[in-house]
Amino acid sequence: MSYFDNDGCSLHYEDYGHGTPLLLVHGLGSSTRDWEYQIPALSTRHRVIALDVRGHGRSDKPRERYNMGTFADDVAALIEHLGLAPVHLVGISMGGMIGFQLGVERPELLRSLTVVNSGPEVKPKTPRDYVEIAKRWSLSRLLSLESIAKGLGRLLFPHPEQAALRAKIEERWPQNDKRAYLAALDAIIGWGVRERLARITCPTLVVSADRDYTPVAQKQAYVNELPNARLVVIENSRHATPLDQPDRFNTTLLDFIEEVERT
């Protein structure tokens, strides 16, 4: 268990294995624990660093407005603190957004970028988008973290054989700091860097579950706007692909990184 300081905020990270550096960035309301099925597999070939984003896990939860630029600055500070650059960065959901933010602001820090079930903007464009975002914003404030956890568990892991995964969500989600969780949610809504995607020239892998919140076609559209990107679809998966399809995800990621390393 290790910590470093960035701009007065103590941030927790974990460091495993040896080799080319691979940095894992979790999603909203999550922590380093959500990479539990990746770290053992990835650290046999790489130095794997997993970060708790500010407001999450064992990192500080400052009482302030959060924004994607601050999150990306924290990641950049960790890369520089450990002398990792350039790094293979992997981000899921909000972590993928942080990866996009870092990619357009500090592209020299990235050897490759892997984005899982995410996108380069969260901007409502249709009446339905506005309704869905308003609904999520409101329910996140009205419902307890325990209620949100139960709903998420059923949404992400609906099958009987996924009971253990549902139990993980129901146990971990209520451990969030509600104020910090809402601050991070607010940082996501309205954010976007899509108009700057051309700055991300490193090899980029976009992983989409076939049953993610947003359709595969939406990911393919922004993949086409990236200079050096490809899309891989993982079947029988929802938003938490590294948890519900860990073997397929790990193999896809390792194959991609090994290909990048050969070039």
TrEMBL record:
InterPro entries, per the entry: AB_hydrolase_1, AB_hydrolase_fold, AB_hydrolase_sf
Keywords, alphabetical: Hydrolase
Signal peptide start and end residues: none
Domain AB hydrolase-1 as annotated: residue spans: 21-137
Domain of life where this protein originates: Bacteria
Recorded GO MF terms: hydrolase activity
Pfam families in UniProt: Abhydrolase_1
Protein name: Alpha/beta hydrolase
